Amino acid sequence: MLHFIPAPSHEEGDILKATRALVDSRVRKTVLEDDKNCQFRREYFDEIARLRLHSLTHPKEYGGLALSHRCYFPVLLEIARGNLAMSVSVSVTNLVQGAVAAYGTTEQKDTFYRPLVEGKWMGAFSLSEPQSGSDAAALRLAAKKVPGGYRLSGTKVWCSNAGSADLYLVMCRTSEHRTKGITALLVSKDTPGFRVGKLEKKLGLRASTLAELIFEDCFVPDSNRIGKEGQGFEVALSQLDAGRISIASVALAAVIESVELIWKWGKNNQEAFSAHARHTMATHYAAAQAIYLAVWEAAALRDQKQEVTQLASQVKLLASELAMRATSDAVHFMGVDGVNPNFHVERLFRDSKALTIVEGTSQVQQLVLVREMDSLFE
Ligand SMILES: Cc1cc2nc3c(=O)[nH]c(=O)nc-3n(C[C@H](O)[C@H](O)[C@H](O)COP(=O)(O)OP(=O)(O)OC[C@H]3O[C@@H](n4cnc5c(N)ncnc54)[C@H](O)[C@@H]3O)c2cc1C
After folding, report:
1. What is the CATH number of domain 239-371?
2. What is the rounded CA–CA span in Å between residue 360 and residue 362?
3. Which of 53, 148, 149, 296 has the fewest CB atoms within 10 Å around its CB?
4. Statement: 10-118 belongs to CATH 1.10.275.10
């Protein structure tokens, strides 16, 4: 089996082994069926959460494992090797945990954070609206201040884990100021006036849910506000780096899986598996290994609580674009087998396309990087 170097060691290595065992015995076994049926399996998420894989960097006092990000990102990669969509669902829950950990009060940590970390609840993170995808600060979902809380009216779109999650972190507009007029509210799945719309059909990541959220005069108490009123954009941005490194890890799984799949296929198709195909796929693997080292460094920087925004954008951009190239090449080199779902590479190809969009498109990552470059030459 192919793997990246270095791998986490000792205690972290045991967690990776446990992840691999769970993925191979459960998640991987039904991936074709789940992709075909657009089925998210909550029971798999629950098993992942029982091992605390979704919250392993979080403190033990709240039910986490207090392990490093150098363990967490490889674990996400390992889950993604079995099913990219499941790994994305896990990482989204982790973002909600991260926001409540960073901005929640002690009371909110007991009420919301603990069940998320313990894996009793699954989270969803809702920022996007039809007119505010890349331009997230253009969001409009109205949260009107009323005694004791807020009344929400409007819709959000493209929310991963929608319909599967227990708790939604929703960014709302509380005043006209573009960024300081945004407030973060936690909405429980059974809140009156809140419902999940029709599940979206999508090209890739079909085994995780994506849907519209509908709010009809929905009351959310002040006690569910994360951070201060007007601090919601900051709350959302605080999770961006983690989200981007997570997607980079998931994308690397698509690369390593496509390389492994084509090599196994090549054993039975030696004449079709040309020298050109081998060289190309080996080069993709080399690029993935190099990006993995950057992910590894980004993880270390997060553990040291250091600035990582540039590196997060770099690895997200490079890994998701590499996943597109590697999976597309694998489909191509395998010919008719490449487009046959039973050979898996066509699913990896479809999933990889979604990875170039979620958590900021490739162009948005380029904008972040260009802004930094410009600032260096001012
Ligand atoms: C699988 C999946 C899961 C998702 N899950 C979530 C979720 O859980 N929560 C959530 O809030 N959102 C989620 N999203 C939404 C996602 O964040 C948005 O799709 C993304 O930010 C892009 O926004 P958009 O689709 O409106 O595209 P647009 O912003 O309209 O962009 C369209 C195109 O224009 C390009 N573009 C936009 N602005 C610029 C610019 N300034 N310069 C150059 N090019 C530009 C983009 O790169 C893209 O190619 C998900 C999306 C996908 C595909």
Report:
1. 1.20.140.10
2. 7
3. 148
4. no
CA of 254 to the centre of ligand 1 (A): 21
Tell which CATH classification among 3.40.50.300, 2.40.110.10, 3.40.50.10580, 2.40.50.140 matches the domain 123-232. 2.40.110.10
* pLDDT score, position 200: 95
Q: How far is the CA of 368 from the centre of ligand 1 (A)?
A: 15
75-108 pLDDT tens trace: 999 999 999 999 999 999 999 999 999 999 999 9
Establish whether 200 is a catalytic residue: no
Going by C-beta distance under 8 Å and a sequence separation of 6 or more, which residues neighbour residue 318? Answer: 248, 287, 291, 294
What tens digit of pLDDT does each residue of 151-164 get? 999 999 999 999 99
The predicted model scores a pTM of 0.98
* DSSP string covering 122-144: -EEEE--BTTBSSSGGG---EEE
Yes or no: say if 102 and 91 are a contact pair by the CB < 8 Å rule: no
Given ligand 1 and candidates 87, 239, 357, which is best to mutate, with the most ligand atoms within 8 Å of its CB? 357
pLDDT in tens, 346-358: 999 999 999 999 9
Domain ranges across the chain: 10-118, 123-232, 239-371
